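Researcher: We are triaging several targets before committing to wet-lab work. For this one, the compound of interest is S-adenosylmethionine. I'm pasting the protein sequence and the ligand SMILES. What I need is the predicted three-dimensional arrangement of the protein with the ligand bound, expressed as structure tokens, so it can go straight into our comparison scripts without reformatting.
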Amino acid sequence: MNNIKIIATANFGLEAVLKRELINMGYENLEVSDGRVSLIGNLTDVAKLNLRLRTAERVLIELGTFEAYTFEELFDNTYKISWENIISEKGNFLVQGRSAKSKLYSISDCQRIVEKAIIKKLQTKYDIYRFEKSEERYKIEVSVFKDIASITLDTSGDGLHKRGYREVSYKAPISETIAAAMVMLSYWKEDRILCDPFCGSGTIPIEAAMIGKNIAPGISRHFDSEKFIFMDEKIYKEERAKCYSEIDYDKKLQIFATDISYKAIEVAKNNAEILGLDEDIKFFVKDIRELDLPDDYGVIITNPPYGVRIGGDEVKELEEELGKLYKTIPTWSLYAISSDEQFEKNFGKKSDRNRKLYNGKIKTYYYQYYGPRPK
Ligand SMILES: C[S@@+](CC[C@H](N)C(=O)[O-])C[C@H]1O[C@@H](n2cnc3c(N)ncnc32)[C@H](O)[C@@H]1O
């Protein structure tokens, strides 16, 4: 399979950082639209993107795109796709749907038609009545937008935010892909101190440590496409081996993760241990009110408690405390994600830049305060 249209999807607001990741990996001619960046590639690229992209949510292959004003058109064009070479006899497939601004507005009908066309095509090769569920999984999506249907196959399976290290989480964890984006959007570099004073399950410090040591985010998990019949098993094996060979085991990092909760610190330490990063991140139980940081050009990247998910009057007070802490360290930069529109007021300073990001369905703001460049 060559010249495949590959689509990397992401949370709204992360398209630019995802595009930058792809450019840094050497990809060109990228097409950016809401929540997705597309490129032309092959199956090695599929494996590479699943293993390496930090800010994408899924990697899809587009199998077909066509005009669909009627169910006949949807059926016929879906049938034209060579499903018999894509899905195995034991393939466990699932069709999901989306529709907007189109004549074919009934999502369940679109799903049913696509499913029917796939089964009919598979019956040309297999005795589909003996179709069994298996571990192989093919997640197919039919998406109709302005009467153009697009049929995609999900090569990731579980969302890419599931890195495999967060077996347990504490209270309101942030998505791993957003945590990685926060670090990538900051001016933090591996030789600078990084501190997350509200670390919870440790997602931000762990994502930063993975970036610092060049650990590919998908290295310790599996993807649906590893089992696809058209995927040569050597591809993932080789791409994974390359990722391992690129890890900078000797890189020394200065990452501090603190939280008022003993339980959170236990969970965070455990998550870091799963990746072998427990030596790279120093964990402490600490109330932000008692945190003392050296004024040494460090970077705070954090996700303070905020109303929608944690709640209470404490939110305002903790934002004030964060502002007070920042006043004691004028050479530091600070980055905070919050859904609280009053954050800057409570923090006591207007941010240098503020970016809208979506943490799931929650609209959040990424408040950015830039300190001076390190001398
Ligand atoms: C939104 S959660 C952070 C989630 C984290 N980013 C993660 O991915 O798990 C906010 C954290 O602030 C902590 N916290 C609340 N009050 C605190 C205080 N006074 N000092 C330090 N941490 C506090 C909570 O225990 C909670 O873990």
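Researcher: Any quick observations?
Model: The domain at 176-369 is CATH 3.40.50.150 (Rossmann fold).
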